[in-house]
């Protein structure tokens, strides 16, 4: 029996992929409607209510004094452990990375996406062995819906790429920022170890801090944000994630069947526990589902 449905999803996905311009290319082209490949399945966007209960706010932990004062350090480790057990998410301030470096990192990501298409396209690939991988949606052909987001990715440790392989518009800040994040990561691994009742070097000695992947997302303003998601619900398949987000917001954490906003806090970094840390902590720490809403504002970095 013939069908009257002429929607060919695979062809639309391939046509979108072949542009090598991502979601930003659609927006730059003046699109006013979200294409069908981005439409989330019915009910998926509103499956759980969004909470306005302040009891479930994401804790902000001040790391000042963690390297100097044993009493303060114990208090900080307890807070990190408590947040990692109950929410899987927390924010950190006084983390040692200057605000100027955070701002330059966001600017560098913006420069990458806003450079000429022909320059950017040289990095567009689905070969994840490349030193820099730029594309839109790693699961483009397998996901239920395409996310309203473009991404470039590079493994910065343990075997960093050659400087000349990194994009010229942001290579210096990528290296500088990743080095500083590794220092912060080492401190967090110590605090997480202590929160588990272990020696400070336990997790680091297991090589939990050996690798560092830098994932740089760009979420253009969406003309119909109620139809799409910036990032679908997922957990992170790492030990933990250090997230630098801008003022646009939109990140939400699933807690007790409610979506909790992770608000933008100037100078703060968001930390969330990944699947590997939940695994090796015997479920003491939890890797929780989170998502990013699409927004008419943007771009979000």
Task: Give a quick set of tags describing it.
301 residues, alpha+beta, four-stranded mixed beta sheet, 8 helices, 11 strands, globular, Fe2OG dioxygenase domain-containing protein, dioxygenase activity, IPNS-like_FE2OG_OXY
Short description:
This protein has 301 residues and is α+β, with helices and mostly antiparallel strands. Helices cover 29% and strands 18% of the residues. The chain has one domain (9-293): Sandwich (Jelly Rolls), CATH 2.60.120.330.
Describe the structure.
With 301 residues, this protein is α+β, with helices and mostly antiparallel strands. It has a single domain, classed as B-lactam Antibiotic, Isopenicillin N Synthase, Chain (Jelly Rolls, Sandwich). The chain contains eight helices and eleven strands. It has helices spanning 9-18, 22-28, 70-86, 99-113, 117-120, 171-195, 202-205, 275-280, and strands at residues 60-62, 89-93, 133-135, 150-157, 212-218, 229-234, 240-243, 251-255, 258-261, 269-273, 290-293. Strands 1-2-10-7 form a four-stranded mixed sheet. The protein has a four-stranded antiparallel sheet with strand order 6-11-8-9, with no helix packed on it. It has a three-stranded antiparallel sheet with strand order 3-4-5.
